[in-house]
């Protein structure tokens, strides 16, 4: 079901919001007006009407409807098409969730399209409202607010993953840790980092392209702000790569620890087997159908029992002293 949100700025001042999508053209007729339209779960017909009014390219419209695009910035004759992702982190499953959003950027209109009803537009609007002094930069101001919120979400997800990996490191060396849980958690975190990297890596090129001076965006005042977003993307990318290496190291360390524990267990079992071999050898040897010292006498039983206990105790002390058991 289609839901929408709209806003209209004129000379950097918010003058109207919540108006019908059909009134977009009417608002754009005013000089100095900039319009934002958000469409949630539109179909092709819904978006086609708006595309006809704003002159949006049919390929960009098709990408906005189908989604599942790689983060990118396509340049057309009179507008730009942006595809990006918001991310979240589920601490219960240690998995990263993604929510795709598409955006059309024209000289005086900014159109966002998404299928996820839970997409956090409130944070984007709050970011715009927190910087009214920049609203005079028109569409560049709106685009920056969206990208800034998305990149801040990347930082929050990476920070959460970093904390999860630290907790996993502590769990890894506990003497009675659940190795199956460590293994599952390690693979889940590594999978999340792969998903996050797949989202963040193309964003570096997207923001870098926006910094180019040949685009139609009004970047005189907003240039440093987009540069700041670009720096944040680089930082979160480097952080993600370091966490991927750390997650891989945890997997390798877990396998090494399991191997070491198996060696220790094997050593202890072998030590106890050697101790048990003493009474087995003595009783087995004298179990032959031949006379032996003390045969037929109670003293012989006591003597053999003393030899078994003495040799077993001696082996136990020797193995314990050498940390074999």
Automatic annotation (TrEMBL):
Main location as per UniProt: membrane
Protein name as it appears in the record: Magnesium transporter
Segments forming a coiled coil: none
Cellular component annotations (GO), alphabetically ordered: plasma membrane
Transmembrane regions: 269-288, 300-319
Intracellular or extracellular location(s): Cell membrane
Keyword terms of this UniProt record: Cell membrane, Membrane, Transmembrane, Transmembrane helix, Transport
Pfam assignment, any one: CorA
Annotated membrane topology: Multi-pass membrane protein
GO molecular function: cobalt ion binding; cobalt ion transmembrane transporter activity; magnesium ion binding; magnesium ion transmembrane transporter activity
Family the entry assigns: Belongs to the CorA metal ion transporter (MIT) (TC 1.A.35) family.
CDD domains per record: TmCorA-like
């Amino acid at each position: 079901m289609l839901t929408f949100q709209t806003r209209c700025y004129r000379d950097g001042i918010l003058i109207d919001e919540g108006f019908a999508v059909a009134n977009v053209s009417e608002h754009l007729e005013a000089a100095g007006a900039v319009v934002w339209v958000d469409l949630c779960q539109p179909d092709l017909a819904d978006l086609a009407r708006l595309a006809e009014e704003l002159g949006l390219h049919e390929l960009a419209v098709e990408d906005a409807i189908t989604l599942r695009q790689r983060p990118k910035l396509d340049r057309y004759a009179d507008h730009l098409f942006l595809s990006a992702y918001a991310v979240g982190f589920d601490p219960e499953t240690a998995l990263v969730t993604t929510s795709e959003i598409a955006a059309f950027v024209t000289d005086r209109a900014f159109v966002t399209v998404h299928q996820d009803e839970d997409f956090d537009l409130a944070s984007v609007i709050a970011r715009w409202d927190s910087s009214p002094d920049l609203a005079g930069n028109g569409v560049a101001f709106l685009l920056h607010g969206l990208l800034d919120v998305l990149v801040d979400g990347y930082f929050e997800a990476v920070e959460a993953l970093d904390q999860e990996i630290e907790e996993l490191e502590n769990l890894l060396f506990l003497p009675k840790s659940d190795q199956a849980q460590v293994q599952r958690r390690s693979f889940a975190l590594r999978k999340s980092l792969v998903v996050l990297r797949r989202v963040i890596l193309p964003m570096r090129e997207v923001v870098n392209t926006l910094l180019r001076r040949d685009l139609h965006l009004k970047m005189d005042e907003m240039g440093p702000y987009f540069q700041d977003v670009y720096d944040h993307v680089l930082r979160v990318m480097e952080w993600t790569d370091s966490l991927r290496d750390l997650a891989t190291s945890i997997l390798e360390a877990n396998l090494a620890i399991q191997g070491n524990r198996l060696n220790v267990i094997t050593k202890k079992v072998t030590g106890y087997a050697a101790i048990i071999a003493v009474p087995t050898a003595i009783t087995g040897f004298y179990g032959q159908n031949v006379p032996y010292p003390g045969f037929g006498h109670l003293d012989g039983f006591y003597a053999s029992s003393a030899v078994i206990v003495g040799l077993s105790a001696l082996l136990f002390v020797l193995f314990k002293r050498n940390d074999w058991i």
